[in-house]
Amino acid sequence: RMRRRWLFADQLGPHFLDSPRQPVLLVESKAVFRRRAFHRQKAHLVLSALRHRAQEGDVRLVQARTYAEAVDEPVTVCHPTSRAARDLVRRLPDVRMLPPRGFITTPQDFVTWADGRDHLRLEDFYRYARRHHDVLMEGAEPVGGRWNLDADNREPPPRGSARLGVPEPPAIVEDEIDDQVRADLDRWEREDGIVFVGADGPRLFPATRAEALARLRHFVDHRLPEFGPREDAMLAADPWMAHSLLSPAINLGLLDPLEVIEQAERAYRDGNAPLAGAEGFIRQILGWRDFVWHLYWYFGPHYRAADELQAHRELPAWFADLDADAVEARCLSGVLAGVRDRGWVHHIPRLMVLGNYAMQRGWSPAAVADWFHRCFVDGYEWVMTANVIGMSQYADGGRMSSKPYAAGGSYLNRMSDYCRGCRYDPKVRLGANACPYTAGYWAFLARHEPQLSGNHRLRRPLQGLRRLDDLDAVLAQEQARGSSAP
Ligand code: FAD
Prior knowledge:
Number of helices: 21
Strand order of the largest sheet: 3-2-1-4-5
Order of helices and strands: EEHHEHEHEHHEEHHHHHHHHHHHHHHH
Bound molecules: flavin-adenine dinucleotide
Shape: globular
CATH superfamily of the largest domain: DNA Cyclobutane Dipyrimidine Photolyase, subunit A, domain 3
Mean pLDDT: 95
Number of domains: 3
Largest sheet: 5 strands, parallel
Strand content: 5-15%
């Protein structure tokens, strides 16, 4: 007889079962929300997905205080996505743990690729994974003759239009399960003292397999063709651009990343999407997503505490509490409002507006990682660690990226329409209209010059730094600005 499969809340799709008829155990624990303040919409999405799943097939949903209490029969479980959950599974009697699912490459593949390398770089891993899984390949060569179309995918937003103009994904229609979740969350806030951050709002992301498949279909048909060129661009009035918005669904396990990239490749092969879009998109999933997943395990438990840049400052309350209205800098205010209102912004706001600001100010990388984890609907420990500690805060001293993602206002001005109408001037680093990103950029470089001087990718910025005749004044200004909202 097939053992019941215990599914964690991020393992909800059919690829976590051995057969569609396999009996399932789901555990809903309120205690998770007591430990940390999560975004209200994230709590809603996860609970809604879990409870929707409980309606499908032979499922036992146990509402319990602890997992140990809930798992009272022999079960199998796919390798969980966090160390804490894995250790728990190991401690429970009569739970058999299977290899992880929900990613494309296996841990063994990754270790084979990584062992013996000094630097782990996405580009190398991605090429390995493309070959290994025969994705966008023509024999031994990449289709179109190039592995990397990033150079085609860095265009600024269209000038003079507030939106990119791609069809928006169809809105989600909430049902009575969503209503029930909302009522429960309201009650927990009122009666149990559970605290959330961010605004409640209509559910924006899929909670069921059917909703997730519909979103995937819509993306591949209508948005993938536009995905590539403007991938890095931001428009104040268009939070979605041509991004897929699929991360919450993939991370909940509602979609198998393999089916997602297969559909994207098919769209390209059928002539329905250009190579730059399909390649750029597949790179995010087969490349980045699998890469950061493996790095979470490969770098080990101490990686999360890495702090090579000695950044110890606490997050100021206006940032921690998503108080966008306290911020005058248009980009940061707009992005923080996006997090508050949707629990989601796309990659460049995360990296170049939020992460960049935090790194410039010397905020504690672990606290920044924790903040991202709690505030984003797609945030999970495994995905946070490498993305925040490594990529965005450079707290690992370059183990996974070749330079810190620090940038001043001129980058933001080129890649977005935020600077127009902002009270700060991206070209100005000193005085009342000094852009906090521009001033913060120079202050960051000055603070870390000794550590960064060996990095050839920073040679030019560091030369520029040495030529600044007002650096002392900029540093004094940034010191005085402290942690107040810009
Ligand atoms: P698209 O642009 O449409 O990309 C397609 C898919 O690729 C995404 O759905 C996602 O599954 C995957 N992907 C792309 N980049 C990454 C990446 N760097 N790491 C992992 N998967 C990736 N992604 C999360 O899923 N959860 C997070 O909590 C998260 N936090 C981040 C924090 C920081 C500081 C940074 C810089 C990046 C973070 N990312 C995170 C990665 C990325 O920003 C999001 O996956 C992406 O913005 C989700 O939107 P989308 O589905 O429209 O992505």
